[in-house]
């Protein structure tokens, strides 16, 4: 694998990006830092994307055409075709400010102990009108080892456009995008990167991230979005560093997976409740999650015997939990009333739930 010192390899997956891709590529051509290569992966576009791409004759632009296989596969194709020292991201509807690459590479080139950096930027609309700063939708900023805050939720960066990574780290650890994840494969990718890297935040606006009605977040069905979230969470829990996270973070991740995402999938829920990672939680948190998981099944009239078994397990871990005691007995003696009460609670919780992908996934 070749690594050309100083060169930035920019990945740009695109599917039917005719409306904005010319502006996106132009923002790369306008960079004050010119040592870059752009890997455009045309993922089976059926609009005028291919015609527009053919207009660019710059030798630094490498256009790869493939049948439509999804964002993650397109990003992996780009990864396998790079030779730069640094890895950068630009979606076909987003923009770099002219000094973005110069600022980011200049920093990493002079900080050998830092593996990656990220900056601020702006959300823009379809007319390039600035809406709000990326940092307004983030926690942090976080620096150094950011694995724990990133595994908690995806709002550390927002879009990957604002990041720059030493590509050697990605190559050495064979990090790729999970093709099963339709929404948010970048979050899963960055969790994998974060387990090996040290980060720095650069406080300036370097990118523009476009919000519009054809963002994949808005056009993909809720079931596919939820499955992508589930896979991201499951991958995170399986990560070798998950057990080293604070108890509060591990509880948050399991709560999101079990209660917000898998609430109507009893077999999958049960597998995680029997897992070694779940067993490593404190007795109090295991008891609470068992009770909440059981309540979700009862509210949907699903796998009631399994729900009752979880309630009993919960009581064995925390006999003083009156909520569990109440639900168990109410479901035993007045199951219809119990279901109605829990169904009402489920709807109120789900309507208030905020996805960790927020508005930044595409």
Structural notes for this entry:
The protein contains 16 helices and 9 strands. It is α/β, with parallel strands linked by helices and 362 residues long. It folds into 2 domains: 4-212, Spore Coat Polysaccharide Biosynthesis Protein SpsA, Chain A (Alpha-Beta Complex), CATH 3.90.550; 226-352, no CATH class. Strands 1, 2, 3, 4, 5, 6, 7, 8 and 9 form a 9-stranded mixed sheet that branches.
Largest sheet: 9 strands, mixed
CATH topology of the largest domain: Spore Coat Polysaccharide Biosynthesis Protein SpsA, Chain A
| CATH class label of the largest domain | Alpha Beta
Q: State the secondary-structure class.
A: alpha/beta
N- and C-termini, Cα separation: 30 Å
User: What level of helicity do the residues show?
Assistant: 40-55%
List SSEs in N-to-C order. EHEHEHEEHEEHEHHEHHHHHHHHH
Give the total of beta strands.
9
Q: Can you tell me the CATH architecture of the largest domain?
A: Alpha-Beta Complex
| Overall tally of domains | 2
Radius of gyration: 23 Å
Mean pLDDT: 91
**What's the number of helices?**
16
| Low-pLDDT residue spans | 351-362
Sum up the overall morphology in one term. Answer: elongated
Percent range for β-strand residues? 15-25%
CATH fourth-tier homologous superfamily of the largest domain: Spore Coat Polysaccharide Biosynthesis Protein SpsA, Chain A
How would you summarize the topology of this molecule?
Layout (H helix, E strand, L loop, with lengths): L3 E11 L6 H9 L6 E8 L5 H5 L7 E6 L4 H9 L4 E6 L5 E2 L3 H10 L6 E9 L5 E4 L13 H6 L10 E4 H6 L12 H10 L4 E12 L5 H4 L2 H17 L8 H15 L4 H8 L2 H4 L3 H17 L4 H14 L4 H12 L1 H18 L10
Parallel strand pairs: 1-2, 1-4, 2-3, 6-9
Antiparallel strand pairs: 4-8, 5-9, 6-7, 6-8
Helix pairs in contact: 7-9, 9-10, 10-13, 13-14, 13-15, 13-16, 14-15, 15-16
């Amino acid at each position: 694998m070749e690594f050309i010192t100083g060169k930035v390899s920019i990945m740009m997956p695109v599917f039917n990006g005719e409306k904005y891709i010319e502006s996106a590529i132009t923002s790369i051509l306008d960079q004050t830092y010119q040592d870059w290569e752009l890997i455009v992966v045309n993922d089976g576009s059926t609009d005028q994307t291919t015609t527009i791409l053919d207009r660019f004759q710059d030798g630094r632009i490498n256009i790869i055409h493939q049948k439509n296989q999804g964002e993650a596969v397109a990003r992996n194709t780009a990864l396998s075709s790079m030779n730069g020292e640094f890895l950068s991201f630009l979606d076909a509807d987003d923009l770099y400010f002219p000094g973005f690459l110069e600022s980011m590479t200049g920093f990493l080139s002079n900080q050998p102990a830092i593996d990656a950096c990220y900056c601020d930027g702006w959300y823009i609309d379809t007319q390039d009108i600035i809406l709000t700063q990326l940092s307004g939708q983030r926690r942090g900023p976080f620096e150094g080892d950011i694995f724990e805050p990133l595994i908690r939720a995806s709002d550390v960066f927002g879009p990957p456009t604002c990041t720059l990574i030493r590509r050697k780290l990605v190559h050495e650890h064979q990090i790729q995008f999970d093709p099963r994840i339709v929404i948010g494969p970048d979050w899963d990718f960055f969790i994998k990167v974060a387990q090996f890297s040290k980060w720095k935040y650069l406080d300036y606006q370097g990118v523009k991230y476009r919000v519009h009605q054809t963002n994949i977040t808005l056009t993909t069905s809720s079931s596919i979005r939820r499955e992508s979230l589930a896979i991201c969470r499951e991958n995170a829990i399986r990560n070798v560093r998950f057990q080293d996270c604070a108890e509060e973070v591990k509880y948050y991740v399991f709560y999101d997976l079990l209660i917000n995402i898998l609430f109507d999938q009893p077999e999958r829920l049960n597998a995680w409740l029997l897992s070694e990672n779940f067993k490593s939680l404190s007795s109090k948190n295991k008891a609470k999650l068992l009770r909440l998981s059981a309540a979700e099944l009862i509210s949907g009239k699903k796998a009631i015997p399994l729900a009752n078994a979880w309630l009993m397990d919960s009581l064995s871990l925390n006999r003083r939990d009156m909520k569990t005691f109440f639900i168990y007995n109410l479901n035993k003696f007045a199951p219809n009333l119990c279901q109605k009460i829990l169904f009402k609670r489920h709807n109120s919780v789900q309507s208030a739930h905020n996805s960790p992908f927020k508005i930044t996934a595409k």
